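To close the chapter, one final illustration. This time we ask the reader to focus less on the individual chains and more on the assembly as a whole: which components sit near each other, and how the overall shape emerges from the parts.
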Amino acid sequence: MSAIKNVWVFSDKQDILAELCAGARQLGEKVTVLLIGNQSAADEAIKAGADHVYLMGELDDSRMVEDFLPTIEKLVAEHNPDLVMFGNTKRGKLMAGKLAAKRGTSVLADVIEFSEDGTCKRRVYGGAAISTIKSNAEVAIATVGGGVFGPQALDESRQGTTENVDFVATESKVKCVERRAKAGATVNLSAAKRVVAVGRGFADKEDLKMAEELAELIGAEIGCTRPLSEGLDWLPREYYIGVSGVMFKPDLYIALGISGQIQHMVGCNQSQTIIAVNKDKAAPIFKQADYGIVGDLYKVLPMLIEKLKSGK
Amino acid sequence: MNVITCYKIVPDDQDIIVRDDRTLGLEKAELEIGQYDLPAIEAGMQVVADAGGKVSALSVGPKLLENSKLKKGVLSRGPADLYLVVDDSLAEADTHQTARTLAAAIQKIGDADLVLCGEGSSDLYAQQVGPQLGELLGMANINAVSKITVEGDKVIVERTLEDEVEVLEVSLPAVISVTTDIVQPRIPSMKEVLSAGKKPVTQWSLADIGLADNPQTMETINTLAPELAERKQIIIEGDSEEAVNELWENLRQELQ
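The assembled structure is written out below.
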């Protein structure tokens, strides 16, 4: 991949699709969207930044999102775009991988930054480092998360073209028999303006209620360190700050009982302001904090919550 | 049911050090089985416990795979035998090279009904090898699977997506990438550790699996720790009311 001219975009999630359209505008000369949906969805994609939209058909009970891959493969083979970006959902990752294997290449996975010279960046080692990588393929394939380009305002006056394409049917080896909403709360940390993050300084799952109360009072989302979601199972994986490709740039980040290992700090490094509460004076978090208090969070937190409630 | 579970040997990222020039030092990092691969191995053991059959473990990579502690480590978690494809050129393999090598090894092993992968490697975490491997083998291919139930010549799986759960009927043979929620991996017993040393290990070269030509499709130009932002570092000591007041004043300004 050298100069990027033609950028193609696909995502099964509308919000990521809009962001990728806007991002693709900054990267290339022509933005083409591969769309499952109707004309009004195509119009939205054009307002978000698309020049051209391939309408591949609509979802129904007999078609999974993944069943549209052969249609995408055919279009990519016919037109050879410079870059195909998939939103980095689970479906996006599967489809990007299948397309890459078909074309004999790798996927630029969870890219967090594209450069004009065709290189791009991704996090490795749980966020402890960032690799600069480059695809050798004629058609580079990438997965990109929400937050990388950030949401952009829609341009209501933008013009683009829409083209209906035939659905390429293949025999599917995977059939969907049931679909249900996922239990439990969903969290969108990448869009959060304020985040209260919890770490091993909490002795018991019950005690997280204090952090939740603080978060609620200041309108923040809850996040956590890896041990809390992967070792202790106190919070679902979506709450864990570090390894995923999601960019994370809140205005305010409050770290409670977090020591501040590099793997975690990279996840919150782009926060505007970091406030830390930790009883260990030597905790690395204090070197990366704007404001900190060396104290017991079990004493500090109730006092802070009281002050927030009273406003004094 | 012949199950093959794939795994990667990775450095423990807690032991990685960042040098002054922002490059990483991996020398002190202990090698371990990828933490996302352990649940895939255990899920394979569950499948054969329910449906009968055999689990084989498979890894491809550089010479360090030959480490006997690592080989025993994987075999003590249940698999009946182990296959390795060893070549130092695989140390920097991209996801396509890895998937191609695994595919060639799986074809040489033969008769696989179900191939299991973790959701990603714990070092690079591209989450790409499973999806690419399934395509290369031409098998049914699905990721993010949190439950597997065998039903005759197919499996019923639950797939946990961002905001929904799908129940899917997957024909066999299949390549399935599983999440860490699928099952808690075991801690091997002393008996399992002792018997692991007696299980068969088959080691192949790239030539043995007919893959002498497997070029890179992606370059890694460099890997550096990120530059850290400058911070004010106004740190108050103690958890007295006075100290909390001071923190509160700072917090209050930020909230405005």
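DSSP finds eight helices and 15 strands in chain A. Residues 4-164 of chain A form a domain with the Rossmann fold fold (CATH 3.40.50.620). With these observations in hand, you are ready for the problems at the end of the chapter.
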